[in-house]
Amino acid sequence: MAEHAEATISLREITKENLRNILGLKVAPEQERFVASNAVSIAQAYFDRDIAWFRAIYASDTPVGFVMLHDEPAERKYYLWRFMVDHRYQKLGYGARALNQVIEYVRQRPGAHECLTSVVPGEGSPGFFYEKLGFAYTGDIDEGERVMRKPL
Fold first, then answer.
1. Residue pLDDT, tens place only, 42-70
2. Residues 6 or more apart from 139 whose CB is under 8 A from it?
3. Nearest-5° Cα angle at 139, 136 to 141
4. Do residues 26 and 49 touch, judged by C-beta distance below 8 A?
5. Of the chain's two ends, which shows fewer C-beta atoms within 10 Å, N or C?
6. Where would I find the beta strands (DSSP E) of 1-85?
7. In angstroms, rounded to a whole number, what is the distance separating the alpha carbons of residues 10 and 8?
8. How far is CA 109 from the centre of its chain?
9. pLDDT score for 3
């Protein structure tokens, strides 16, 4: 794999050919309570095809993560539903670079003026990561998770 700073970050469709690699990506054990497995996320995406937009995150030709949006242009609703970077590839800048690409995608969507997400509260929560990328807590709670918003 290319050195991290030089790795090209891309968002790629998940296909029969790369599915097994994406299913093999995992967060660290202490992070598991903060994000569903990629298998669960992909299953949910297939049952919500009208609103789920999901991609594998690659660093050059290495799969390093997964992202899924609730992408509902008719309602002008864009929500970062799932986001994970495999524990082996965290703290290399891949997550921030990938999330910036996701935000650029959302900016191009009809009527997009914000991107929402939510985080499970607690020690090790990814809230700080999202704050560094311009998300802020709204004060709302959704199914026990703290909602965050990034204006576009």
1. 999 999 999 999 999 999 999 999 999 99
2. 147
3. 110
4. no
5. N
6. 9-12, 52-59, 62-72, 77-85
7. 6
8. 17
9. 65
State both tokens at 84.
């994970």
How far apart CA 85 and CA 119 sit, in angstroms, is 15
Please state, in angstroms and rounded to a whole number, the distance separating the CA atoms of residues 9 and 29: 25
Q: Which residues pair with 65 in a beta bridge?
A: 57, 85
Domains recognised in the chain with CATH numbers: 4-151 (3.40.630.30)
Whole-angstrom Cα distance, residue 53 to residue 57? Answer: 13
Dist. CA 148–CA 130, nearest whole Å: 8
At 81-132, the pLDDT tens digits run: 999 999 999 999 999 999 999 999 999 999 999 999 999 999 889 999 999 9
> What is the Cα–Cα distance from 41 to 61, expressed in whole angstroms?
22
The helix or strand, by DSSP H or E, that contains position 119, with its residue range, turns out to be strand 114-119
Report whether 102 contacts 139 (CB < 8 A): no
- Whats the size of the chain, residue-wise? 152
